[in-house]
From TrEMBL:
Database matches in NCBIfam families: myo_inos_iolB
Keywords per UniProt: Isomerase
Statement: the UniProt record of this protein carries the keyword Isomerase: yes
Pfam families membership: KduI
Name recorded for this polypeptide: 5-deoxyglucuronate isomerase
Originating species: Granulibacter bethesdensis
Single GO BP term: inositol catabolic process
EC number: 5.3.1.-
Gene Ontology terms for molecular function: glucuronate isomerase activity
Amino acid sequence: MSLLVHSAAPDADGVVINITPQRAGWRYVGFRVVKLAAGKTYAGCEEAREACLVILTGKVDVTAGLQTFTALGDRADVFDGPATSVYIPADLPYRIRAIEDAEIALCTAPAAGSGSPRVIRPDQVGQEIRGEGANQRYVRNILDDKAEAEALLVVEVITPAGHWSSYPPHKHDRDAYPEETFLEETYYHRLSPPQGFAIQRVYTDDRLIDETMTVETGDAVMVPRGYHPVGTPYGYDLYYLNVMAGPRRQWVFKNDPAHAWIMKK
């Protein structure tokens, strides 16, 4: 099975991507993208799984249990600053109503149901710059390992045209803390202008996995294990939304030894 997942036409619920642990052949990460026309709704309840609803574009109301959060989201495009998101504990019913045409990413992972629903507003998103030169990218930490959650790690990254990201190639596929942690991961890609493309490779040391993919706007890539660099060509900025989860909620990675010298330049 290819690690590349294309968006489909919306189903009756508006779902265009649905990566389940069963589909991916792993244990932790779930990822969906829902498109809703103004006035339409999407309802769900993640059994034994926590969720982070990332409002990609548009404006929505979100009801989680007995709480309703109104008029969330103000992005016309995913490149327009950090997202507004909603954290929802496991087993809590929720409902999304689109005030205007909207796109929402639903990121899920196993959880017991601790904590309370809350809005994560753009000014609460930690921002940082990583890398130098053509390796520079802009990171928006929605749920990092210091934020309140049970398993989920959620981050947006903007990679400027002609740059590389998740580079040097790194992996996090061993449960060997403090040297490395095991985290499954999905990448959800968007490009500006939208007719562009990017390149992502996923490979392991033994090359049992070695897949190089052309990704376009709306594509997702599954990373069960291995290194996973991504690059975007001249003229096209790349956005991706990362979802990670595993047995330990910490991101500790290992660079590919063949390319680790780049960090010493």
